[in-house]
Amino acid sequence: MISSSRVGGAVLVVVLGALSMDGGPARSQPGSAQGSGSGSAPAAGSNGEIELDEDDVGTTAGSGNILIAPPDPSLRLAWLKDKVAAAITARPKLATARITYAVIDLSTGKELVSREPERPMNLASNAKLLTSTAALSALGAGFRWRTAVYAAVPDETGTVAGDLHLRGRGDPVLSVEHLDQLAADVAARGITNVEGRLVIDTSYFDNVTEPPHFDEQPKERAAFRAPIASFAVNRSQYTVTVMAEPGGAARVTLDPDVGDYMKIVKDEVTSVMKGRSRLRLEHKTKPTGVELEITGQIRTGEGSWDLRRRVDDPTRFAAEAFKHALAKHGVKLRKTSIGFGPVPPTAKLVAAHDSPPLTDVIRWMNKHSDNNIAETVLKTIGAETKPTPGPAKWSDGIAAMRAQLAKLGLQGTYRSDNGSGLYAATEVSAKQMLTLLAAAHRDYRIGPDLVASLPIGGLDGTLARRWHGKPALGRVRAKTGTLDKVTTLAGYVGVDSGHVLAFAIFVNDIPPGQRPLVKAMADEMVDALAAFLDAR
Fold it and tell me: What pTM was estimated for this model as a whole?
């Protein structure tokens, strides 16, 4: 439960213990160690919305009665239509919600059931299906992002007469561990002193770090709204972990370690045996860096809490992390200020780090509904396909995505203004989504990797807790989407015979407090689809 939120001094007060967005251990980030926290605190913005997609685990379905569809083909489709319709009518509290859906048989292209399939809807994080498909089409499954370091050839003493240059190319999963290895590689080349400073080449993207529609919640500091840059690290976010300890003490740690640029200057947290956990995190940006103040209390029985927050200046954050890594490996910069500019044509490649392939990146993105990765991927599509030279803009990414989706048959009027689906960025119909899912499934260059990136019902990602003990368990590959008044689910249902259905269920204007009902409704619909296939 959120008790208050204020930005100016960038203060966030969180009441913990009553709500855990994922109800389990904090997840690890690409290229970093698994977190040890027992929960992560959500944060509300100025308009009261909470973006839950990163931890949209849903509810665990009980064992209940197993659905069995009629074996008679003449009765089976009517049974399916009745079950899908009943999932809605059984929930009168959703009467004012806008509910659309459509299901097609991918072997025949035939529509099986639908309700207002051409009505434009807010997709929430279902928009990541558009981003993923466009990226696989435009970039190819093996695409990698490269971060590289350049310098003049050092003299016999290991001194570089000039600057050390780093070119960022938008790696969305670059970690501090990767930067540490880059720094180690620089030192291994015999460089010990740099007469100049660290200069960052950010020409891959422009300097507009906020994706479209992110300004709808300008005071939100939660990590789901992290900014985008051509050189960024740790997905432009940091984590303050508070661990309860016996005797009233509490241990507070900060990850990642970026040296003196970001540090905890005030730590006044105690452990209590009774009462709720209440933590106050204040973020203050100074010319010399970022100062964090954490106060409050944590209940001993809760173990630990992770408070994940966005950084305001992603390039400075990443550059300071690299400077810190260079110092650890004995590479001294004579000038401590950070510069910006292109890599000189005379500079030589010193070290480089290549990201995992696109297939691995979109798998993380979709399994965990990561907004920062999605927006970086969108801008990368623009950077790699734009017809004119220069840094990629958000408009380049959006135009490139639309061009790729048009090749796959996504036509007509629709709107998808960013890569993550956050805020009021999308208007896409269930029919249009099924057109895309069917086209991707037919294209062997896209389909296998797209399907592999999706959460598996009851097993992993944002669908890990759904359909337990039900026919759909393990047979659903789908993308979730959740905003304050939006819940969406779209993907594929398949059975052992190889028969596959594509489905899209979009619900907008959900009445307050009724999101659990919507998820239960969608689960029943998908369970009926699995039972329908089982009876074939």
Answer: 0.88
